[in-house]
Design brief:
The chain is of the alpha+beta class and 285 residues long. It has helices spanning 43-50, 87-90, 96-114, 187-199, 248-252, 264-275; strands spanning 6-7, 20-25, 28-34, 37-39, 56-62, 65-71, 82-86, 126-127, 134-135, 142-143, 148-157, 160-166, 177-180, 202-214, 219-230, 240-246. The chain is built from six helices and 16 strands.
Amino acid sequence: MADSLVPIIDPQASPKPGSLAFAFAGSRMVAVRSEGVLRVPEYGHLSELLGDPPDAVYLGRLGDRDCFALSIPEGADLGTDLVVAGLRELYSVLPEHLMAAAGRAFQTLEWYHGHAYCGRCGTPTELSGTEMARSCPTCGALHFPRVTPAVIMLVEREGEVLLARNRRFAGPFYSVLAGFVEPGETLEQAVAREVGEEAGIEIGDVRYFGSQSWPFPSQLMIGFFARHSAGEVKVDGSELIEASWFRPEQVAAGEIQLPGPFSIARRLIDHWLQRSSIDSRRGFV
């Protein structure tokens, strides 16, 4: 099987029994459990249990398999071998190429249902035959899938890293800072503003690291490194409840809980530790 989904626009495509079905009950994905292993179900498997599944949105091909995204009713009887799980749970279970397809499927469904009616005039929309869009036959508006850019940044200071606890985090869970890009901002400006708002310090030397699609529900996380230039840490109190500077040995010793290895937040931390000559696998919770 190919390593990545090849997107294809074909609003007339219909699923066959052997097509891969990225099905969601609310925000949780349906998976087949076989001998303790989870995999993406085939469309025929779902139709056997649910009768005719709801409309499926064509995503493209994964190797020689057509892939579709579809929603099923929450609480539907899935039998004994189908389970539902959050995408975060599946990140450590399914291969990376299937998780990328699952994230695309979830975001596609968010767009498909969210723009069933035109936001300008209220007319039911139609799938475009040439691009990923829903078009309005009355006013001509095109509604594309929404992707919300967010910056995520690791701030350094003389061999230390700034890690923080969010109000929503349970226990000693620390991560790097992050925030959404505002209208009219460059990515670099968003990095500086978010660090200033959340931690009360000034930064410079903003350098791009990488990006990650983050389907919770439709973010694009854009990672950066930055260096402290002025000020003392003072958390905003609304999102962050604590932020401190940590040395590499403290981070690697397992005293604090870090983001999962599938996240760009962890990749930023791991990259920083590797530059600090610390084994990033040692001592992590």
